[in-house]
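Researcher: Sequence recovery benchmark, item below. Answer with residues only.
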């Protein structure tokens, strides 16, 4: 029944949003630390890359053993999957600031935090929002993977139970719901990006990606 679907959708959405929030908070904090400190990058970045190389599908059963079948294990898995895209985009974005502008601010006696807040962070925002769009979808995938491995409720658990009863039509209906959820979640991040980055020139590009021709 439709009420059954609503309950599972609510569970998966909660796991996705919590995982997204936790993963993105960790990714942004660590990304800032790595981008602004060469020493932090030297010590931490190799471990981050090694951890990212581990398949999260293989980690999901271990996480469920540690945290149980409840919502916590799903949030942890979603957070781990959503973590890396935002981390990389934050680091790249913060380091993409024009060196001449950074040097100009230093010559005007700007502090390290003033350079960060007034130049590096605004410059990195398009990169960060691109990472958030990917992280949102990845968080949904992480929650579903964890539910497929073992869960008390959620759309992933529903797919698994329908698989046992050979309910192919039911599985397709859940997959359709998941596609719609992904589209809605991506739309929310995109709408928020447009509201925040109204000043960004890339928001005003033609939908076909056409760029003005240079004069001959």
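Model:
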């Amino acid at each position: 029944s439709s009420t059954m679907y609503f309950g599972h959708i609510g569970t998966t959405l909660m796991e996705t949003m919590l995982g997204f929030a936790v993963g993105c908070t960790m990714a942004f904090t660590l990304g800032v630390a790595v981008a602004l400190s060469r020493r932090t990058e030297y010590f931490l970045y190799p471990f981050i890359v090694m951890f990212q190389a581990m398949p999260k599908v293989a980690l999901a059963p271990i996480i469920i053993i540690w945290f149980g079948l409840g919502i916590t294990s799903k949030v942890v898995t979603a957070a781990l999957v959503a973590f890396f895209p935002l981390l990389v985009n934050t680091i790249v974005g913060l380091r993409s600031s024009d060196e001449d502008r950074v040097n100009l601010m230093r010559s005007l006696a700007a502090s390290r935090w003033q350079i960060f807040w007034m130049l590096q962070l605004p410059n990195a925002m398009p990169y960060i929002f691109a990472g958030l769009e990917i992280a949102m979808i990845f968080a949904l995938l992480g929650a579903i993977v964890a539910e497929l491995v073992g869960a008390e409720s959620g759309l992933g658990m529903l797919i698994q139970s329908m698989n046992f009863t050979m309910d192919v039509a039911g599985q397709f209906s859940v997959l359709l719901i998941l596609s719609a959820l992904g589209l809605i979640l991506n739309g929310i991040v995109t709408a928020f990006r447009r509201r925040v980055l109204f000043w960004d020139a890339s928001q005003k590009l033609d939908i076909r990606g056409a760029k003005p021709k240079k004069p001959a």
